[in-house]
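Figure 6 in text form: structure in, sequence out.
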């Protein structure tokens, strides 16, 4: 006799993977969107990358715009968690900034969130865009607290922490720059982190 699984049609089984299916879909989708932009990714692509059916993807996310929104939010909170973990360490502020830079630049994908939001702004609703932007702002606000702390402890000059965080992230994004021939500015992510933080630090201190 057939066994009743008590599952809705299209819902994927979880026994093949330790990570819950919806979490796996979000993680793979964020990677695909970052690599190929919103327009360059289909629900079929996500399903294949996750080794599930397209119906399984639609079970959790009714539209591509919904999947994109949730994937970008999950990515930003994941990045925020990693950055805060590094900034929380008992190290000089310079060392913590260097550690964040090395971790950020070791990722092969350029996490230029403004570019990804812009690429999809005509494909998602205003509410979805606002939700993504709020997640991005949360990441910046979390970092600002550590800049304020460094100011209070006189490790850096009394600079506007919001400006400092945005300037820092913008500089880190240059570490992924490649010219028309595909050549990077720096020979390695470690060298990029070292030079960028050294340059940035001169603006933070005397």
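Output sequence:
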């Amino acid at each position: 006799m057939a066994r009743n699984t008590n599952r809705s049609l299209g819902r994927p089984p979880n026994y093949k993977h330790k990570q819950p299916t919806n979490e796996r879909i979000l993680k793979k989708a964020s990677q695909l969107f970052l690599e190929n932009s919103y327009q360059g990714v289909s629900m079929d692509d996500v399903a294949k990358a996750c080794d599930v059916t397209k119906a399984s993807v639609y079970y959790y996310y009714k539209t591509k715009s919904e999947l994109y929104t949730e994937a970008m939010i999950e990515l930003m909170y994941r990045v925020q968690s990693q950055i805060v973990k590094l900034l929380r360490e008992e190290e000089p502020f310079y060392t913590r900034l260097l550690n964040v830079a090395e971790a950020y630049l070791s990722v092969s994908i350029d996490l230029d969130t403004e570019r990804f939001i812009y690429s999809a702004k005509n494909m998602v609703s205003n509410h979805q865009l606002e939700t993504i932007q709020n997640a991005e702002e949360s990441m910046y606000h979390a970092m600002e607290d550590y800049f304020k702390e460094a100011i209070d402890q006189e490790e850096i000059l009394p600079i506007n922490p919001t400006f400092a965080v945005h300037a820092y992230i913008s500089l880190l994004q240059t570490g992924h720059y490649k010219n028309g021939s595909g050549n990077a500015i720096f020979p390695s992510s470690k060298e990029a982190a070292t030079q960028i933080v050294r340059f940035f630090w001169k603006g933070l201190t005397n």
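Caption detail: Residues 84 and 126 are 29 Å apart (CA to CA).
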